[in-house]
Every structure is written in structure tokens, then in C-alpha cells.
């Protein structure tokens, strides 16, 4: 069942039946039937259509933002910003694709003129999460569509109205019907769809558990797959330079999307010389920002996306405290209505506690004190995840030396990572593989065909 349950009130307002097996099969056949027509649509026309979708997003920004606020509790100002970012992603991919899809000469081939051509694969199945209902779809569908593939999209069960809005936007602007098809599929149907020959690739953004399941099925079916999974990003502070500003930046980064972002910092690893001042400022900042009604313009933190999400986070915090961790602030739900959770800061978290190895998906943080740079790197890498990271140091070369040693896919130095479509996004280890955004994202679901004209 796909349903809209407002996490601010706990009230379910809409319900949608999952597709039947027959309907899932028909959806796949529609996307597969559209593929040769969309593939053969000139690149310039495909890109113009995707830009038109971006323009439609902006034209309907306020309406679409309200869907997200209702479905998963995103503060309304952040929801509007997400729509704007999604439009920028679509536009960037459409603007870059014509040049990226031109045949690429290969140098150093004796006796032949060789080029690499980029051709679409077919239907690409996207399995999308609830935390960014528009941004995540744009990040996936933008490059898939402009490169000539068609999309079969399964959104999160708690985001059905966002999913339907995407379907409507695409249907209005894409000239080939069924180039983008939404399906309210079950997990079992997703597994079946991956095995179908019409599906040539799969992209999933979600939990480690979901990624393992989809990756196993895709591997057995020999399908190309991109997995963008969880993260427990380290935020490393190597000295006390401008420490108040650094701590304020840490608070803002942790509370982005009410703490429900895979690439948000969750572990704050601070040098001995800076720890006390950083901890004092960080705890005060986290305590000052309390969750409120996401429909209000001034709200920075809303509820967690569901009661289930709140229980998971509270279980992780409680486990740590029961095992000896120090609770500096928070650690409890707020009120009797809605999934509101107080911003939380822990320290003295050690191996064996869930908070040491698991991702904290909500406004909860862990502080660590380290003796030197080597200890900071060792602790940062002592995680099953390897998505993003942040390093602060007055000496930029020192920060670069630490960044080089981190087992992650992304590092930001002395600031937050710019949120722009040109920067590739992805990780290593249990955070998944493959890349979205940037030119690497445009290259994920294409056939790099080598054509060599042998000279006579």
C-alpha cells in the first residue's frame, strides 16, 4: 500500500493500492515500447523536452513543495529549495548531454581511426527514497532520459503524490509517450522486474538493506546497477582555527533535512586542542534548534519522516546511553503528536554500541576527541560506510593530506560541499558504488561502443 501519512499530525490522508502483477508488467511493456522512439529522437529534442520539465517544476514550485512537506515533513522553505535544485539538475544534464554524446576520438591507435560512441541501453529502473522526493528522482532520471534511455520509476511508498506529480510533469513535456512510467510496485515486483530482459539497468538510492537486496538480484541477472546507500560521514576538525564558525557550520550541516540526509556529517571528530570549545558551541547550537511545524516559514527542523524512523533513531540513542555513552542534549521525542525528535548529541560512544557503526538518520550526532591527525583518520575510516566527509584545518596542505587518506567518495575542505549538478556524487564500501551527477552520472547508463575504421 502506498499512503500519505503526515508525520506532523500522524494522520493518513490518501491511500493508493500497489500495482497488480499484470499492471507492473504492462508498465514495463509501455516503457520498453517507448524506448526505440525515444532513443531515435534527436538529442537536441530530448534535451529541450527535459529542460521543459525543469521549467514546469519551477512553475509549480510552491504546489510541489507542499506535497513534500505533507508526505515526509520537510520544512516548507527547504521543500521549495529542493524543487529549485531538482530543476537545476535536469537543466544541467540537458545542457551537457549534446557535447558528452558526441563520438569521442581515441588517440594512439595505429592503422585505424577509432571513436567511442555513447548509446542508450533501454529501460532503466529507478528505485527512489523518501527523504528527497524530487531531488533524488531528478538526479536519476535527468541523465537517464537525455542519454536516450526510458525510465520505469518506483518511488517510496510514503511519497505517492510526489511520484504522481513526476509522472504528470513528464507526460506533459516528453514528446514520446511512456518515456517515463511510474509504477507503485511491491518489493517482490521490483525483484521480478529487474530479471526481465527489457530492463537493462537499475539505480537505487536507499538503505544498505535495500541496496543489498537489489544488488543481489541485479547481479544474478547480470544487470548494470548503481547503488547510492547510507553514510556515516566524519566531520574532522584538526585545529582550533575559527572554531566558533566551524562549530556553527557543523550544526547547520547536521540539521539539514532534519538530519535525514545520507551525506550529512554524523560523526564529529575533533582534535584535543579544539575539542572543549567546539563541543560547547556545537551542543548549544543543537539545543537551540528545536523541531516545529514544517508548514511555518521560520521552521528549520521538522518532524522525522515517520513514526518508524523516530523509533529507529531513539533505539540507537537509547542503546548508546544504556551502554555508557554520555548524552549532552536531546535523546527524546517532543510532544504526543507527530514524529518530532529533539536534536541529540552523544559522546563516549564506543565499539559495540549501535551508534558507533550504524547510520543515525535523524538529528543525532556523536562527538569524538582525538590526539592527532593519524588518530582522526583511523577513527574516520573505522566505519562500514564511505560516502562523504568534511575536513577543517588552517593549513590547507594538512587538510589535503588527511583527505587523501579518507576511505570515502567525497571530501569537502574548510566548508560544506557545494550542492551543484556538476559535482559527481557517490561513495565506496557499504555506501554503494557508481556515481550520480556530473559527467560521470551521464556516463553510467550508456553503452560505450568502440567503432574502429581500419585504414586500407
Quick synopsis:
The protein is α/β, with parallel strands linked by helices.
Descriptive account of the structure:
It is a single chain. It is built from 15 helices and 20 strands. It has 456 residues and is an alpha/beta fold. It folds into two domains: 252 residues, Aldehyde Dehydrogenase, Chain A, domain 1; 188 residues, Aldehyde Dehydrogenase, Chain A, domain 2. The protein has a seven-stranded mixed beta sheet, sandwiched between helices. Strand 16, helix 14 and strand 17 form a beta-alpha-beta unit. The longest helix has 25 residues. The termini are far apart. It comes from Tamaricihabitans halophyticus. This is Succinate-semialdehyde dehydrogenase/glutarate-semialdehyde dehydrogenase.
Strand order of the largest sheet: 12-13-14-11-10-16-17
Number of domains: 2
The strand count comes to 20
Strand content: 15-25%
Keywords:
single chain; succinate-semialdehyde dehydrogenase (NAD+) activity; globular; Ald_DH_C; 20% strand; 43% helix; seven-stranded mixed β-sheet; 15 helices; Ald_DH_CS_CYS; Aldehyde_DH_dom; six-stranded mixed β-sheet; 20 strands; 456 residues; alpha/beta; Aldehyde Dehydrogenase, Chain A, domain 2; oxidoreductase; Aldehyde Dehydrogenase, Chain A, domain 1
Amino acid at each position: 500500500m502506498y499512503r500519505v501519512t503526515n508525520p506532523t499530525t500522524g494522520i493518513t490522508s490518501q491511500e493508493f493500492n500497489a500495482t497488480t502483477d499484470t499492471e507492473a508488467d504492462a508498465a514495463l511493456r509501455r516503457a520498453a515500447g517507448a524506448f526505440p522512439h525515444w532513443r531515435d529522437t534527436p538529442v537536441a529534442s530530448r534535451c529541450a523536452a527535459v529542460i521543459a520539465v525543469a521549467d514546469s517544476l519551477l512553475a509549480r514550485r510552491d504546489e510541489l513543495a507542499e506535497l513534500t512537506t505533507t508526505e515526509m515533513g520537510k520544512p516548507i522553505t527547504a521543500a521549495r529549495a529542493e524543487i529549485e535544485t531538482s530543476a537545476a539538475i535536469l537543466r544541467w544534464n540537458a545542457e551537457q548531454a549534446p557535447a558528452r554524446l558526441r563520438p569521442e576520438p581515441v588517440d594512439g591507435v595505429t592503422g585505424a581511426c577509432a571513436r567511442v560512441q555513447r548509446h542508450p541501453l533501454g529501460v532503466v529502473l529507478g528505485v527512489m527514497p523518501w527523504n528527497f522526493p524530487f531531488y533524488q528522482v531528478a538526479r536519476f532520471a535527468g541523465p537517464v532520459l537525455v542519454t536516450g534511455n526510458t525510465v520505469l520509476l518506483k518511488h517510496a511508498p510514503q511519497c505517492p503524490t510526489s511520484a504522481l506529480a513526476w509522472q504528470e510533469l513528464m507526460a506533459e513535456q516528453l514528446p514520446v509517450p511512456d518515456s517515463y512510467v511510474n509504477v507503485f510496485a511491491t518489493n517482490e515486483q521490483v525483484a521480478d522486474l529487474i530479471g526481465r530482459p527489457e530492463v537493462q539497468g537499475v539505480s537505487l538510492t536507499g538503505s544498505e538493506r535495500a541496496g543489498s537486496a537489489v544488488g543481489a538480484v541485479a547481479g544474478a541477472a547480470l544487470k548494470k546497477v548503481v547503488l547510492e546507500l547510507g553514510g556515516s560521514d566524519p566531520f574532522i576538525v584538526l585545529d582550533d582555527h575559527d572554531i566558533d564558525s566551524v562549530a556553527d557550520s557543523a550544526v547547520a550541516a547536521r540539521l539539514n533535512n532534519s538530519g535525514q540526509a545520507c551525506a550529512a556529517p554524523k560523526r564529529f571528530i575533533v582534535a584535543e586542542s579544539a575539542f572543549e570549545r567546539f563541543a560547547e558551541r556545537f551542543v548549544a547550537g543543537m539545543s537551540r534548534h528545536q523541531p516545529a511545524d514544517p508548514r511555518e516559514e521560520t521552521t528549520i527542523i521538522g518532524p522525522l519522516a515517520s513514526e518508524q524512523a523516530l523509533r529507529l533513531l531513539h533505539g540507537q540513542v537509547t542503546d548508546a546511553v544504556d551502554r555508557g555513552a554520555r548524552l549532552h542534549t536531546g535523546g527524546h521525542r517532543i510532544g504526543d503528536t507527530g514524529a518530532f525528535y529533539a536534536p541529540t548529541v552523544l559522546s563516549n560512544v564506543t565499539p559495540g554500541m549501535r551508534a558507533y557503526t550504524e547510520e543515525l538518520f535523524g538529528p543525532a550526532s556523536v562527538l569524538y576527541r582525538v590526539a592527532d591527525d593519524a588518530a582522526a583518520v583511523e577513527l574516520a575510516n573505522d566505519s562500514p560506510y564511505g560516502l562523504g566527509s568534511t575536513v577543517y584545518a588552517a593549513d590547507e596542505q594538512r587538510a589535503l593530506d588527511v583527505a587523501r587518506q579518507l576511505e570515502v567518495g567525497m571530501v569537502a575542505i574548510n566548508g560544506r560541499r557545494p550542492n551543484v549538478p556538476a559535482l559527481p556524487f557517490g561513495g565506496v564500501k557499504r555506501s554503494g558504488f557508481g556515481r550520480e551527477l556530473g559527467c560521470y552520472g551521464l556516463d553510467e547508463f550508456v553503452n560505450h561502443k568502440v567503432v574502429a575504421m581500419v585504414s586500407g
